[in-house]
Predict the structure.
Amino acid sequence: MLIRIRKPWDQVREADATPESVFLDRRRLMKMAGLGTIALLAGCDGDSNPAKAESGGASVPDPSAPLYPARRNDAFILDRPQTDEQWASTYNNFYEFGTHKQIWANADKLPIRPWTVVIDGMVAKPASWAIDDLLGRFTLEERLYRHRCVEAWSMAVPWTGFPLRALLALAEPLSAAKYIRFETFNDPKIASGQRQNSFYPWPYVEGLTMEEAANDLAFMVTGVYGKPAAPQFGAPLRLALPWKYGFKSIKSIVRITFTDQRPETFWQSLGPDEYGFWANVNPQVPHPRWSQAFERVLGTDERRPTLLFNGYGEQVASLYKGLEHEALYM
Ligand code: MTE
């Protein structure tokens, strides 16, 4: 039987909702109560102003720094001003480091060198890549993308990275591969959130179909605001999928697996009634507990209407033809 824990955001506006606000079954609730986890969840603070702070960064010099700033790809333009860097770098979701938004200092403890990315599964070229060798295989470019969190806030940032399809070309997926599964690091010694392992199904996992991965918008991010990404942004390698809710944009990736099985994602296993595999942005389809019609623009007082596919329908709508019977917008 499903029960619901009353949380602070049950009483506040939609912008304060977080993807953590899932329905929990009784067994999980009992486990959490035993471990004092409920106090942790209730401490999630949603919409407080970010501390004005430097944007953090790895404590060791980043060897990829000379690759920045990369040439901007002018094919990707914004319909709104870019989000102030201070806001984007001090208001983050990275549950591995805490369930609140001010995780940037905590995330700064993540050692991002050495860093290995394993590419495996149904590929002709499985490999274990040292991150800087991997970066050396691509020409980095800058793209201005909108980002719409399922919590109904949004930002617009200059990501630097390379198209995911360039990585496909490197890995040479077999024709039997239907999906890509992405996995974040798992190190509870460094990431305090990962010590909550009786409740959260670590590591964070996300997935895409091969067709989605080959779409021009699917972007592997290595930097932001013209420099290497700081850990809170998901350094040294994260995804950016601007037509999907932000939780699909998995951070600090260590493994990329090509498979014929649809991956079970982190949020799906936590809250299958609220978070699905596709998670395409659609203002007409509310989250079970809040509207998705509007978004709060990070760093401003603006509340603007959310667009279907976050405004990227022209590039991606065709990916979902014939799938209308599936839950495409959660
Ligand atoms: N990736 C990992 N590994 N862990 C997370 O908690 N949060 C997701 C996504 N990627 C998350 C993650 C969510 S809910 C959002 S909205 C974005 O990261 C936030 O990215 P930002 O902090 O750069 O704004």
